[in-house]
Amino acid sequence: MQQRLARGEAAALGEAYDRFASLVHSLAHRVLGDEKAADAVTREVFAHIWEHPETYDPKQGPLRTWIAAVTHRVAVQRLRDREERRRDEGPDGAEDLLGGEEDSESGEEDLESKVRRASVAARADYIVHSMPVPLRRALELAYFQRRDYRQTAADLGVTEDEARRRLRLGLQLLSTAHDAGAPPGYGGAA
Question: The RNA polymerase sigma-70 region domain covers which part of the protein (predicted)?
Answer without folding.
Answer: 17-83
